[in-house]
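Subject: Sanity check before I submit

Could someone independently write out the C-alpha cells for this chain? I want to compare against mine line by line before I put it in a report. The sequence has 381 residues.
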Amino acid sequence: MSDSATNEGVGDGTRAVRAGLPEPVKYEPTLPGPVFAAHFHLPGEATGPYKYGRDENPTWTHLEHAIGELEAPGQDGVETLVFASGMAAISSVLFSQLRAGDVAVLPDDGYQVLPLVREQLEAYGIEVRTAPTGGDAQLDLLDGAKLLWLETPSNPGLDVCDVRRLAEAAHARGALVAVDNTLASPLGQRPLELGADFAVASGTKQLTGHGDVLLGYVAGTDAAAMAAVRRWRKVVGAIPGPMEAWLAHRSIATLQLRVDRQNATALTLAQALRERADVTGLRYPGLPDDPSYKIASQQMRRYGCVVSFTLPTRTRAERFLDALRLVDDATSFGGVRSTAERRGRWGGDAVPEGFVRLSVGAEDPADLVADVLRALDESAR
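---
Independent answer below. Compare away.
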C-alpha cells in the first residue's frame, strides 16, 4: 500500500485515484493485472498470505485495501473483505454474527430482499424486529438485541436515520451495528466514523459505477467479528472472481468524478421535479425541504445519485418510463448511464403503484433534465 493512498489529509479524488495501489516497482504496472489462480506454490509450512484461491487472492487484497482507505481513511484496525455480490456481503454479517435465540433489528423499508432474509433468519430461530428508517424508529426495539441493521438512506424511500445516535444506543445495550452504505457510497458517508461496527455495501452500484460488475464488501473495526465474517466467506465460498475485483479497483479511480457529477445533477433534477404539479412524494436528501435533509446534512458528505417520486397511476409511470430517451428502464442504481424503474413491479417494496426510483448518471445535466421533463409532458397526454 503506497504512502500517498493512506494519507488522511488528501482530497477524495486523490484518495480514489491512489487507493489500494501497491508500492511502485520499476517496469511493473501501477495497478497489477488480475491474478487468475486456484492454487499457489506452497512448499514447506503454509505460512504465506496466499495458499488457496477461495481464501485469498492478490487482486482482492489490492481492492480491499482501496475500499478500506475510502470507508475509513487514516483509521487503524479496519479490515475489509470483498464478496461476490452485495447480498453475499449482507448475508455474511447477519449469518456470521447471529445464532438461534438472538434478536436482530432490521428496517422494514429497506432493500426488497430483506424480507427474504428475515424469513431465513427466523427459520434459524433468530427473532427479527423491524421498524421504519425515518424518525430513528428502530431505537425503540433495541432491548435484548444482538445486532442492529441500518440502511440509510433507505432504498427506495430515501429516508435517513441518525447513525451516531442509534449506534450509541445499540452499543449501550451490547448490540453490534451494521450500516448498509450502498446508496451513499463511502464518499457520501462513512458509517465506521459514525460509530458503526460494520460498513456493508453492494459494490455493484456507484462504487464501480458501470453496471458490469457484481460485487459486495464488508469493512469492520472489530477483529473477532470480522474473523467470523471471513470464516463465513470461506465456508460459503461467496468470493468475487479476480477479473471482477480488478475491474472494480480500476473503476474506483473515477469514483469522485462520477459521484460529484451524479450528485450535482440529482439535486438539479430534484429541484426541477419539485415544480411539477403531477409529481408527488418527491424525495432527495439534498433538498433543503426534504424530511431527511437535517440529519443527512449532519452525517453525509454527499447526498447520493437517486431521486424518487410518485406519478398518479401505474399506467402514467409506465408511459413516462417508455417516453424517456436518455434513461434506461432498468433496475439497480449508481451507474454512469441513468436508469429508472417503477419499483412496484417487483412486489417487495411498500410503495405506490406509480412510484419511480430514478438513478442519475453522468449525462450532461441540461440534457437529462430536459429528457425527464419532456417524458413527463408526453406521458400526461
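---
OP: Matches mine. For the report I'm noting this point. The mean pLDDT is 96.
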